[in-house]
Design goal:
This protein is an all-alpha fold. It has 24 helices and no strands. The longest helix is centred in the middle third of the chain and has 23 residues.
């Protein structure tokens, strides 16, 4: 009964339950799980059907919408809809366990794992943790970082290259990351452990600042595992740290370290590991209340997709970053995201859309105030903008050769502006210029440029530089009858990554 003086349509108890359900499923009695509406889903061992009938269970005080349940489970509403209709069957053990844990399904009713703990039958030795399905709350994010870094630190690089898993693509990549747009889950379960001190924060920030742009100068003396060790130690501390501004700053610094780890992994050819650390960087930036940096990490993930020949996936990631920072992005960040958007159009041969995006990027960049931009965007200067535009015009020239002269203009301007100490960036510029000359029908000029950059490539021992050289070798195959081309292709074969 509702009291006579209560103007609300719900009583006090129901109103309290409604508030609680915003952040998690309500407590249900044992009889809830024995209700006949659930019997068919349990009999069919169908988690998707179980999610659907759970939402419509007659014992719920308040209606459970797909949006609400999707927020509980850490997935998108569209993904939940496909699970419920059976379009996407739920057959991954980690997802089955996660959904059962969130909804507090009694163990005796589980058909897939009555203990709830991994076993040899369904977990491959050395398999990395799933960073996509973990809940989006600060403690879970920190725990996911720790589990991932410790898994990577336990195996050698050779083993990682031998057993590398395929990267996530399509809906499996984009849909879990849509949770970034939602508010972070409440932090009430955070530990009351010791706060990370200001001195520790300063030391961590010093490390992150020193690592920023590591690849531009070749990364001499830097070890990927050293970065992972630093990230692992920070993640362990964050699981015990109390909620507050200091902890949020520590999460942001962790996001910077995770992004460096991702870039190092990518350079080493470990695309699956790179993707994991990019995802963790997005999550840590979210916990650190820094959505713009999360968008920058999504832009880096998009670049990885372009490198793998997945422009549609890359474009979706860019658009996710653009939407999430539509009110908070600085002019430089907007310019970065627009160049990534143009990158997708270049690979897809969409000339008009490419030039529109590039024009908007140049307009945004022209309005920036360098003093007002965050330090992590300092590397995106005029040289970088010119280099990106030139390289993307070169990609577009594969579809429309008329773009090649314009590509060369931008790349040469990038080289004129580029800091000489940014050795790897300059190597990318030169290789891009050579590839442009090859498209323009000047193979001997192109080979001369490559011969000039080869000593730098040997010294850098960068996986990404080598892959760009291999792209040149592949694109020059039609001219291999020329002595200069044969000699250059043979020289490329002698370059080895780290």
């Amino acid at each position: 009964m509702i009291a006579a003086d209560n103007a609300d349509r719900l009583c006090h108890r129901c109103r309290r339950n409604a508030r609680e359900q915003v952040f998690g499923p309500p407590e249900v009695p044992d009889s809830f799980w024995g209700h006949p509406v659930l019997a068919g889903a349990f009999a069919d061992q169908n988690m998707g059907a179980l999610l659907a009938v759970y939402r419509h269970h007659p014992q719920h005080v308040n209606r459970v919408t797909q949006d609400r349940m999707a927020a509980w489970l850490g997935i998108s509403q569209a993904q939940l809809s496909r699970y419920e209709t059976g379009e996407n069957p739920i057959d991954r053990m980690d997802k089955l366990r996660h959904f059962a844990e969130v909804l507090a399904i009694p163990r005796e009713r589980l058909w897939f794992d009555r203990t709830g703990s991994p076993n040899v039958a369904d977990t491959e030795p050395g398999s990395p943790p799933d960073v996509f399905s973990a809940p989006w709350d600060a403690p879970s994010i920190a725990r996911s970082v720790e589990e991932t870094t410790r898994s990577d630190l336990a195996i050698s690089r050779r083993a990682a290259l031998t057993g590398a898993a395929a990267v996530a693509v399509g809906p499996a990549l984009v849909e879990p990351l849509q949770r970034w747009l939602h508010p972070l889950q409440p932090m009430s379960r955070w530990s009351s452990g010791s706060t990370i001190s200001e001195d520790e924060l300063s030391a961590l920030q010093y490390v992150a600042d020193g690592l920023r742009g590591w690849g531009g100068r070749g990364g001499e003396g830097l070890a990927r595992k050293a970065v992972l060790g630093q990230l692992d130690e920070l993640a362990e501390r964050l699981q015990r740290a109390p909620a507050g501004p200091t902890t949020e700053r520590a999460f942001f610094i962790g996001a910077e370290l995770a992004k460096v780890a991702a870039s190092m992994s990518w350079d080493a050819g470990l695309h699956d590991a790179a993707q994991r650390y990019y995802v963790l960087a997005v999550r840590m930036a979210k916990a650190g209340r820094n959505d713009p940096f999360a968008a920058m990490c999504l832009a880096s993930m998009a670049r990885q997709m372009f490198d793998l020949g997945r422009p549609e996936d890359g474009l979706e990631l860019v658009q996710l970053g653009q939407y999430g920072t539509r009110r908070t992005a600085t002019p430089t960040l907007r310019a970065v995201l627009l160049t990534r958007e143009a990158w997708a159009y270049a690979q897809m041969g969409q000339v008009r859309e490419f030039h529109r995006a590039i024009g908007n990027a140049q307009d945004c960049f022209a309005t920036r105030d360098p003093a007002a931009e965050p330090s992590w965007l300092e590397a995106f200067d005029e040289a970088e903008l010119e280099g990106v535009i030139g390289a993307r015009l070169r990609d577009l020239a594969a579809h429309d050769p008329r773009q090649a002269p314009l590509a060369e203009q931008h790349i040469r301007r990038a080289l004129a502006l580029r800091d000489p100490t940014l050795v790897r960036n300059r190597a990318f510029d030169v290789i891009g210029l050579a590839r442009t000359r090859m498209v323009a029908g000047e193979p001997e000029d192109a080979c001369q440029l490559i011969q000039g950059v080869l000593p730098t490539a040997v010294r850098l021992r960068s996986g990404r530089v080598l892959r760009k050289l291999q792209d040149f070798a592949r694109e020059s195959a039609d001219h291999r009858a020329l002595p200069a081309v044969r000699e250059t292709r043979d020289a490329i074969r002698t370059v080895r990554p780290a």
